[in-house]
Amino acid sequence: ESPFEPLHPEKFSRDLAAKINQVMVDSDLREKFGKAGRRRVEEKFSWSAIARKTKALYESLIR
C-alpha cells in the first residue's frame, strides 16, 4: 500500500467523476482551469523560466 492510495477507493472514484463532470458542464470553470494551467506551464517550463533556473543553479555552484 502506498501513501497515495485513497482510503476509500469507491468514494474517491465517485468524487473524481463528479468533479470531472462539473468541469465538463461549466465553461467558466474550464476556462479558469485552462488559464491557470497555461500560466503554470509558462512560469515553470518556458525557455525563459528554464534559463533563469539554470543560471541560478550555476551561480549557486560557483559561490
Overview of the molecule:
There is one protein chain. The protein has helices at residues 9-25, 27-45, 47-62. It is mostly helical. It has a domain at 28-63. Helix 2 packs parallel to helix 3. The model has no long low-confidence stretch (mean pLDDT 92).
Q: Nutshell version of this structure?
A:
The protein has 63 residues and is an all-alpha fold. The protein has helices at residues 9-25, 27-45, 47-62.
Beta-strand content bin: under 5%
Give the strand tally: 0
> What proportion of the residues is helical, as a percent range?
over 70%
Number of helices: 3
Order of helices and strands: HHH
Q: Taking Cα atoms only, what radius of gyration do you get, to the nearest Å? A: 19 Å
Uncertain regions spanning at least 5 consecutive residues: none
Secondary structure category: mainly alpha
* Average pLDDT level: 92
State the shape: flat
Largest sheet: none
What is the distance, rounded to the nearest whole angstrom, between the alpha carbons of the first and last residues? 43 Å
